[in-house]
Design brief:
Number of helices: 11
CATH class of the largest domain: Alpha Beta
CATH topology of the largest domain: Rossmann fold
Helix content: 40-55%
CATH architecture of the largest domain: 3-Layer(aba) Sandwich
CATH superfamily of the largest domain: NAD(P)-binding Rossmann-like Domain
Largest sheet: 8 strands, mixed
Distance between the termini: 42 Å
Shape: elongated
Number of domains: 2
């Protein structure tokens, strides 16, 4: 069991996805979790009723009783929140940020000296507790806090500790990656429909096939290349499909998709902090 008392600053969709994972796991009790936001009391009441957690207004939150703050507000509000936190918390209290484009170094520079900050980035599959979540520690974080954060994030799927300078390529793979697979599924569904298969049945068959292939990679001690070779007989149906995939640039297209998303992530990550710096 994780014993820390956790407060969410922000009550949007990502906060709810993480709260849901926490509550449905066996690692936390609902009474360890508090959520607050700037002004939407109806939203706080909704989360309290749905998950049995504590929900209080910003002014009612007892900051001294909280071990871990999860920053889940809009990135544009980060400066205001950091200014408030600097007056209310101490360096040994942990901040976990799910804010896109806000680096740990930027937060460290604007908080108390030695403040413990960890940046995490879940993906949309956190909504069903199947996220691939990146965990990037700041300079002052103790290893036990890093490991505890990883355990927290495993409540919504799997979690991976990576250096923050790898966050862009992570975004290209895991952050944007679900969309690539959804796009693949769209095309599989369409060609099956054109061949006379019921669209919903084709969708289910395609999804189960994709799920099974992913599970094979996770469960078997073989590389994707080995698994591909295992089902590719010379001059067989799979070989014909792979030949067409290569001829039409399927593999290269996937690599370019990841690289393009990573490059865009790098561009976007510079914008919020630049904008915030200009506003100071």
């Amino acid at each position: 069991m994780i014993k820390q008392r956790i407060a969410f600053l922000g009550a949007g969709n990502m906060a709810e996805a993480i709260i849901s994972g926490f509550v449905n796991s066996d690692k936390l009790n609902a009474d360890q979790i508090t959520v607050t936001n700037r002004s939407n009391q109806n939203r706080l009441n909704e989360l309290k009723e749905k998950y049995g957690i504590n929900a209080v207004s910003k002014d009612q939150l007892n900051y001294k009783e909280i071990d871990v703050f999860i920053l889940a507000m809009k990135p544009k509000d980060i400066d205001e929140v950091m200014e408030d936190l600097k007056e209310r918390i101490t360096a040994d209290q942990l901040l976990i940020s799910v804010l896109a484009g806000i680096s740990t170094s930027y937060m460290e520079e604007n908080l108390n000296e030695g403040q413990q900050v960890i940046r995490v980035m879940p993906n949309t599959s956190s909504m069903i507790q199947e996220s691939a979540t990146a965990v990037s520690p700041g300079r002052h974080v103790a290893m036990d806090q890093v490991l505890m954060t990883k355990e927290l994030m495993k409540c919504i799927g799997e979690a991976y500790i990576i250096d923050e300078d790898k966050m862009d390529i992570y975004t290209g793979i895991a952050g944007s990656g679900p969309a690539y697979f959804y796009n693949l599924m769209e095309h599989i569904e369409e060609v099956a429909h054109q061949a006379g298969l019921d669209r919903e049945l084709a969708r289910e068959i395609g999804a189960q096939t994709l799920y099974g292939a992913a599970k094979m990679i996770l469960d078997q001690n073989e590389t994707p290349a080995q698994l591909r070779e295992n089902i590719t007989s010379p001059n067989g149906t799979t070989a014909a499909g792979l030949k067409a995939l290569n001829e039409y640039g399927g593999g290269q297209a996937i690599m370019e998709a990841v690289k393009s998303a990573a490059a865009r992530s790098k561009e976007l990550s510079k914008q919020p902090e630049k904008k915030l710096a200009l506003q100071k």
